[in-house]
UniProtKB/TrEMBL annotation:
This is Molybdate transport system substrate-binding protein. InterPro entries: ModA/WtpA. Pfam families: SBP_bac_11. The lineage of its organism: Bacteria, Bacillati, Actinomycetota, Actinomycetes, Micrococcales. It comes from the Bacteria. It comes from Microbacterium foliorum. Coiled coil: none annotated.
Amino acid sequence: MKAISSMATRHVLADLARAATKAGLPRVDLLSAGGVDAARRVAAGEPVDLVFLARKALDTLADEGHVRRETVTDLVVSSVAAALPDAGENSAVCPSGAAFDDATEMQAALTAAERIGYSTGPSGTSLLAMISGWGMSDEIGPKLVQAPPGIPVATLLARREVDLGLQQLSELVGQPGVRIMGVLPADCAIDTVFAGAVARRALGSDEARAVLAFFGSPGVHEITRSHSFQPV
């Protein structure tokens, strides 16, 4: 069985796929790409059985008839975190608190930063919208450095190409050369729901539905949380 996903969920999906195989379900061969690229490939007719993307992207594919609307299943929630380059090489660990006290403090951090890394995915789109809503696009825009598709913001931080990075927590945890400050505060939090669906071109739709149901079952929530996602 073939599946395609965005980069943000590749690690948790790989562990879920292994757990599904141990539970007697079909093996899932997972291909991960940038979310925009993955959606484009599905829309172009790439033969896959399951699709895992941000909920909004899956809804669009469902509207266009590329995935089965009735199978769209919310699986995990990912929160955006802020991070800095780390002089050491230890894998990043996330503190329990927020990166900033509130939106005002986050605005000050964006103003103070020289280069700000952000992602091509839904979290990046939400960040740009938030900065625009604050009326800070002219001030902050020239500092923004968008990570290329398929390249995590953590890589930009580790290379010292940016001095502040904003991306989904699951993409930052465990990456070398990164110090996570925490998730964004409640008054400017950016949360993304990732979902799965059975592709319209699925060869074994019943088996694909069974795997998708397993991925969303309470019995795998421990796996979900171990990758810094929250189950839906």
